[in-house]
Amino acid sequence: MILDNLTNATADPILSMSVACKADNNPNKVDLGIGVYRDEQGHTPLMQAIKMAQEALTQEQDTKVYLGLAGNESFNDVMMDLLIGAGASRGRAVAVQTPGASGALRLLADVIKLSSPDAKVWLSDLSYANHAPIMKAAGLQVRYYRYFDPKTKLVDSSGMQQDLQVAKQNDVVLLHGCCHNPTGADLSFTDWQAVTDMAQRQGFLPFIDIAYQGFGQGLDEDIKGFRYLAERVESYIVAASCSKNFGLYRERTGLAIVVGKTQQQSNAIKSRLLEIARTTYTMPPDHGAALVDKILRTPTLEQVWRDEVTYMCARVNTIRQRLVTALQQKSGTHNFDFIGQHRGMFSVLGITPEQAQVLRQEHAIYLLDSGRINVAGIQERQIDYIAEKLLVVGKTS
Ligand SMILES: Cc1ncc(COP(=O)(O)O)c(C=O)c1O
């Protein structure tokens, strides 16, 4: 019968590791897995700006009637302002609110498939764990370009450019807007200039995934490279998330942006995105988008939010620096200084899956087999323990 043919799906490694960590009774346990920001108490707080916007909405909102297929259009507009700013490409930009950036990635992948069924999507090696599954689920072919240099633990700029030489009109190149997940190694401004030149010359479509604006060097600084590209290429698409920088993880708040060659082309593509949304979830959930819209359209709230993002960013960068210092002091080397050059929530440490397993099983330090740690989840009191065990595992295997 129809439901008799299925066995268990493979569990998501990040989500199942988080469950294993919760069940661990070791008092020293450290959860460096799932990508969420935590404060010094290990808590992921509701942001003050969100609380204030929520109170205002409770007073003002008098209906929960359906919005349109594109969700909250005021949110879509103000988010495009935040991301693209006043650049010329803003005039050709259209957006659809989606259930998180995950929803945007899938909707955009579907529209690529619809427009060009044999398109290839180029992902950085490494990339966000869900990028390849989403692209493949949409029926797209996936290729990888060199990105993370295992020796320097930074971006392999020349390897990347060499690999992307073959990307042409029927190719999509997915770039992380900032705060690269999982590696923490970000493109420099010069790298952005080089990729922009290549997109102009070779005609591939840049696909920007921005999930951590504000967590690297600040809200404006983090998107300088993206904006450089945005103003110089004919077309680009964006999947953006409000999960981290508005702390709205479970509210599933994000958007898909399309910038076509002309406004007319953008509108046609938007109508296709809406068509796809209609046959999947029809309309995105509103609450998160209504909160973001309220914040970004109320100057006092926007300031509260900007200050909170600045604070979170500074905290993550301080933790990074302290981890580097602890590793320097305990090892007497500069082998881990690269962690200080990484940006955003994550760093890939360049350890083996076996070493990651030892850290989990023997020391209750929960990190992914890829060696990714969530720096934004570390508490100061855990730094010495983490540094010590990283060095133990490095020596013994
Ligand atoms: C690079 C990247 N893109 C997209 C997402 C998905 O974000 P959302 O929670 O908005 O679906 C994440 C989440 O971790 C991410 O790291």
Topology readout:
Layout lengths: L12 H11 L6 E2 L16 H13 L12 H12 L8 E7 H16 L4 E6 L5 H7 L3 E6 L10 H8 L6 E6 L12 H14 L2 E6 L13 H7 L5 E6 L11 E7 L3 H16 L8 H10 L2 H33 L6 H4 L4 E3 L4 H11 L1 E2 L5 E3 L8 H14 L1
Helix pairs in contact: 2-10, 2-11, 3-10, 4-5, 4-9, 7-8, 11-14, 13-14
The chain binds pyridoxal-5'-phosphate.
Give an overview in words.
The protein has 397 residues and is of the alpha/beta class. It has helices spanning 13-23, 48-60, 73-84, 100-115, 131-137, 157-164, 189-202, 224-230, 263-278, 287-296, 299-331, 338-341, 353-363, 383-396; strands at 30-31, 93-99, 120-125, 141-146, 171-176, 205-210, 236-241, 253-259, 346-348, 365-366, 372-374. The protein is built from 14 helices and eleven strands. The strands form three sheets. Strands 2-8-7-6-5-3-4 form a seven-stranded mixed sheet, sandwiched between helices. It is globular and about 60 Å long. The chain binds pyridoxal-5'-phosphate (PLP).
* Number of distinct beta strands: 11
> What overall geometry do the principal axes of the alpha carbons give?
globular
Q: Segments where pLDDT lies below 50 for 5+ residues?
A: none
Q: Helical amount among residues, as a percent range? A: 40-55%
Topology as a string of helices (H) and strands (E): HEHHEHEHEHEHEHEEHHHHEHEEH
The Rg value, from CA coordinates, equals 21 Å
Strand percentage lies at 5-15%
So, the CATH homologous superfamily of the largest domain? Type I PLP-dependent aspartate aminotransferase-like (Major domain)
What is the CATH class name of the largest domain?
A: Alpha Beta
> N-to-C terminal Cα separation, in Å?
50 Å
pLDDT average, as an integer? 96
- Spatial strand order of the main sheet: 2-8-7-6-5-3-4
CATH structural architecture of the largest domain: 3-Layer(aba) Sandwich
